[in-house]
Automatic annotation (TrEMBL), chain A:
Xref: SUPFAM superfamilies: Dimeric alpha+beta barrel
Main location: other
The organism's taxonomic lineage, starting at the top: Bacteria, Bacillati, Actinomycetota, Actinomycetes, Micromonosporales
Domain Dyp-type peroxidase N-terminal intervals: 49-203
GO molecular function, one term: peroxidase activity
Protein name: Deferrochelatase
Automatic annotation (TrEMBL), chain B:
Annotated ranges, domain EfeO-type cupredoxin-like: 12-122
NCBIfam families on file: EfeO (NF041757), PRK10378.1 (NF007697)
Organism: Actinoplanes lutulentus
A GO CC term attached to the entry: periplasmic space
Name of the protein this chain belongs to: Iron uptake system component EfeO
PROSITE patterns: PROKAR_LIPOPROTEIN
Listed InterPro entries: Cupredoxin, EfeM/EfeO_iron_uptake, EfeO_Cupredoxin, Imelysin-like, Imelysin-like_EfeO/Algp7, Imelysin_sf, Iron_uptake_EfeM/EfeO
Length: 411, 376
């Protein structure tokens, strides 16, 4: 900006119409072409929202908002502003049309600036709507039956302050600063319409969503999500992940339901348990990730195999058996969780665990039965506490330049 | 990636601007760009010592090891503008409207002392913003408001100090939030006068080494926590002296329209940072009096600017009206007769609701300065 004096900068704002129109034109062009050709950018528009089957990025910033405005038009205006900002940020641009440093000196910048000079880092922004939203704004008739508040599960120690929410945004990127920047700017744009209810950072993916990715490990040290749904399985995705026409209200067709659970792991006691006990609890080898009784991570677990003493190799109370589709009427989900460490708890322990995220076509036949099964019998429960829970309906993707997040819901 | 489209936009806009202006040359551009300030722990190198009247932008880079501040002082160390808390390695910009005259610049490595001073001469007669008749009317209107508040401030502080010195603790406790109301309404104006604000309103932890913790909050501590005001007399006397000085200076101060706009925002920042958390009045818990006073002061500054804003951005005025009403309604839930509930009587949910209301108002208020600065 050297060389532009204030009077010019002001005049610039004075003819702002032209300047803004110019910037808008850039954004629009960018939108139509999406982020095609921009290195490290995930296309924002498409039949489904990005950030679900997109190869799981390394970092997460997840946020849940309460809607504080009572004005339906105000909420819609914000969703439009969010959509435009999300399209820009996922393409590696500033959140606002003017940007972090090019505005007039007297105005606060319309981008907060911490992502300047950073690449898009595969940023995806995925929005979802919580059950509470449908009690207001004349939306009750559009509430999908699948969007029931989750039931209480045995052992739940949920903190209401970090559970639920009217709207969620999942930001995933390979650079944590890019993910945080995106959430921060959306929160700012939303002020007056929404208020941050809770948010969660995740530092390492615990799932692979494509066959090209290796299976990562959670903080128990085990590979997680070996049998996850993958982007390369279109038939399975149709059956288990994407809401199909006729499943419920039309506006959700092509969308998916997101369940989030913050699962605190009592890692200090876990770390004192023997390798044999750990493997028995999970039902897999810690090194290879292979089901007990096998050498190959991706081999189907054999739940009938017994050892020399006649007991099952994979225990009845093991995690892998209780979570398996065969135990749950074929239920499957696309898991997309992240490890977290939120500092320490003042008792000499790390406040660590798994921020579990799962996408599914219908939680009533996926997450709910699986979690019931786990909550009742999983040996792992001794080492985990579910402290936060939320459910959101994530609409289909943006498909037209004038489309916005939630357009079909509010139309 | 991120910078390319921005640069393109900037250049395109500049192109438009040049065309619109009709004339320009490269030298005048470079002459009036940001003034670089290289701050270290031992030096404060300001790129220019003579500038044109009007709004000037200083770009301060802290190349030292200590956190620093940068000030522009008029005669008598009157703060024209300041930027605080510049961490080592960081750069910050400071915008200041300067009429012709002689000034001093100062870097304060370690944020203490008189700082490293330099001369700054401002010449020419760039039309100040107040040339616009509506803006002039706005500043005059707000000056009248300031005078009305300073009068009450001096009067109520006198009563408060008298009660403290007479050992009348209950009377002093009742007067404490009331005297502070007049202070909190115009605090951004008081903040112009350097050390006076911390002396009058500083909290214990910001008292500089070697200085005594004094002012309103010291007496608050004596009243509510120590429960002993027998030795508070000298502190009370000093408070009144300082208040009288700030009153006299505030009444004489000529404010710019930009200061009104920034003051309206600064008052909300006060609420968001100190009152919501209860740290301002931590002994008496009378934070909601201050909260309300900050809102009233902010509203008064916006009210003075209203004709200008109505003219330039009626939609913004509508939003501000809505959000001010929302804050008032939310805050009114915590009235208790003629008084306010104590901060400690509010639940976390109450505080969250207030915080949301303040954020909803502060965002549009942060846009006011740009609207005021815009050429009519």
């Amino acid at each position: 900006m050297t060389g532009i004096n204030r009077r010019r900068a002001l005049t610039l704002a004075g003819v702002g119409a032209a300047g803004v129109a110019g910037a808008a034109a850039v954004a629009a062009t960018k939108f139509k072409g999406d982020s095609e050709g921009t290195p490290e950018a995930v296309p924002f528009s498409g039949q489904h929202q990005a950030g679900i089957v997109t190869p799981a990025q390394d970092r997460l910033h997840f946020v849940a908002f309460d809607v504080v405005t009572k004005d339906r038009d105000r909420l819609i205006r914000m969703l439009k502003e969010w959509t435009a900002a999300a399209a820009r940020m996922t393409a590696g641009q500033d959140a606002g049309e003017i940007g972090a440093v090019n505005g007039i000196p007297e105005a606060p910048p319309d981008d907060t600036g911490e992502a300047l000079d950073l690449p898009p880092a595969w940023l995806t922004l995925t929005i979802g709507f919580g059950p509470g939203l449908f009690q207001r704004f004349g939306l009750s008739a559009k509430r999908p039956p699948a969007l029931e508040e989750l039931p209480r599960f045995t052992g739940d120690t949920l903190d209401a302050a970090i559970s639920g929410g009217d709207i969620c945004v999942q930001a995933c990127a390979n650079d944590p600063q890019v993910a945080v920047h995106a959430i921060r700017n959306l929160a700012r744009i939303g002020m007056g319409a929404v208020s941050v209810r809770w948010s969660q950072l995740g530092f390492g993916r615990t799932s692979s969503t494509t066959t090209g990715q290796t299976t990562p490990r959670n903080l128990f040290g085990f590979k997680d999500g070996t049998r996850n749904l993958k982007a390369e399985q279109p038939d399975l995705l149709r059956e288990h992940l994407w809401v199909q026409p006729g499943d419920g209200p039309d506006w959700m067709a092509g969308g998916s339901y997101l369940v989030s659970r913050k699962i605190r792991m009592i890692i200090e006691t876990w770390d004192r348990s023997s390798l044999a006990e750990q493997e028995m609890i999970i039902g897999r080898r810690k090194g290879s990730g292979a089901p007990l009784g096998s050498d190959d991570e991706f081999e189907e677990p054999d739940f009938t195999a017994v050892g020399a003493d006649g007991t099952e190799l994979i225990a009845k109370t093991s995690h892998v058996r209780l979570a398996h589709p065969d135990t749950n009427a074929g239920a499957r989900m696309l898991r997309r969780g992240y490890n977290f460490v939120d500092g320490s708890d003042g008792l000499g322990r790390l406040n660590a665990g798994l921020f579990f995220i799962a996408y599914q076509r219908d939680p009533r036949t996926a997450f709910i039965p699986v979690q019931r099964s786990l909550a009742a019998n999983d040996e792992m429960n001794e080492y985990v506490r579910h402290v936060s829970s939320a459910l959101f309906a994530c609409p289909p993707g943006i498909t037209a330049p004038d489309d916005y997040w939630g357009s079909a819901l509010f139309s | 990636m991120r910078t390319t489209p921005l640069a393109v936009t900037a250049v395109a806009a500049l192109g438009l601007t040049l065309t619109a202006c009709g004339s320009s040359d490269a030298t005048s551009e470079t002459k009036t760009g940001p003034i670089a300030v290289a701050a270290t722990d031992t030096a404060c190198e300001v790129a220019k010592t003579a500038v044109d009247a009007g709004t000037n932008v200083f770009a301060i880079t802290n190349k030292g090891q200590k956190v620093t501040e940068f000030y522009v002082y008029a005669a008598g160390d009157r703060v024209m503008a300041e930027v605080e808390n510049i961490a080592p390695g960081l750069s910050r910009n400071l915008h200041v409207e300067l009429p012709a005259g002689t000034y001093e610049t100062a870097c304060k490595p370690g944020m203490i002392g008189k700082g490293i001073r330099g001369q700054l001469t401002v010449s020419g007669s760039a039309a100040p913003l107040t040339d616009d008749a509506a803006l002039l009317a706005a500043t005059e209107s707000y000056s009248r408001y300031v005078k009305s508040q300073t009068g009450a401030l001096e009067e109520k502080t006198t009563e408060f100090v008298t009660a403290v010195k007479a050992g009348k603790a209950d009377e002093a406790k009742a007067l404490f939030p009331i005297a502070r109301t007049y202070w909190e309404r115009i605090e951004p104006v008081a903040e112009i006068f350097g050390d006076l604000d911390p002396r009058i309103d500083g909290r214990e932890e910001v008292t500089e080494e070697g200085l005594t913790f004094g002012g309103f909050h010291r007496i608050e501590k004596d009243l509510w926590e120590t429960k002993d005001i027998s030795k508070s007399g000298p502190i009370a006397d000093q408070l009144l002296t300082d208040v009288k000085e700030v009153v006299q200076k505030a009444n004489a101060e000529k404010l710019s329209p930009l200061q009104l706009a920034n003051g309206a925002k600064a008052l909300l920042d006060e609420v968001a940072a100190g009152k919501i958390t209860g740290e301002e009045d931590r002994y008496s818990h009378t934070d909601l009096w201050d909260f309300n006073a900050n809102i009233e002061g902010s509203k008064a500054a916006i009210a003075s600017l209203r004709p200008v804003l109505e003219e330039r951005d009626p939609a913004l005025v509508k939003t501000l009206d809505t959000e001010f009403t929302n804050v008032d309604t939310t805050l009114a839930k915590h009235r208790s007769g003629d008084a306010w509930k104590l901060h400690t009587d509010l639940s976390q949910a109450d505080l969250k609701e207030l915080s949301d209301a303040i954020n909803a108002l502060a965002e549009p208020i942060s846009q006011v300065a740009a609207v005021v600065a815009k050429q009519a």
